[in-house]
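## retry 2 of 3
previous attempt timed out at serialization; input unchanged, resubmitting
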Amino acid sequence: MGLAALCAKAATLPLPVTILVVDSASTDSTGDVVRSWPAGPVPVGLLRCDRPGKGLAVRAGLLATQAPLVGFCDADMATDLSALDDAVHLLMAGHQVVIGSRGLRESVVQSRSSLARRAGAFLFRAVAASIVSGSTDTQCGFKFFAGPVARTAAQSLRTSGFSFDVELLAACLQQGATITEIPVQWQDVTGSTFSVSRHSAAVFRDLGSIWLRTLAQDEALMTEAPPSAYAGWAVPIAPVPQLASDGAAS
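## retry succeeded, writing output
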């Protein structure tokens, strides 16, 4: 089970970790599983989000934290948890945003996507890159942050659907944070709730809304603050070559 694997990995990290499971108006037994989870070295909590939507669930989870380092990963554990080591290492070294990327040369990706889904993903990445400059993969469900950066970004998060990652990362950049991408081992897991036919229109509509909001916010910030405050925006994405360890946050 994914939660058991995450607990086991979290127990090996060089800092105390608490896991918070966000139940986003699910109709399965997620809540019951977490409520009956046995006590162990890694505390596991449950947060109920009464409205469905991945973006809403992540926002609620991030805002419920007070930890100096925070992050999230998909419940299906499609991203191998070995990447947690690198993420924690980088965050403890002062990196503010560390995200897994399937687009890096060192990443190992096993995917069974249809041709239509691959074509849609290509178009999505092109549009997302115009909002989160230099990103190779905004959608990998493996993202970790300095706590204050994440909570400030989550406060303004309005996208409830699959495109929320783009808005979240753009909000981090607007704070002057840099984004560090790390390679991951990623395996396509059956049971995805995303449907090309049912969700594509909403996804691209959300991207358009995010682009317009980000543009307006950037213009407002540039009129309120001196240009020197944004010097770090020139190279917002910092790919990291292969590290000795692999990574994530608490």
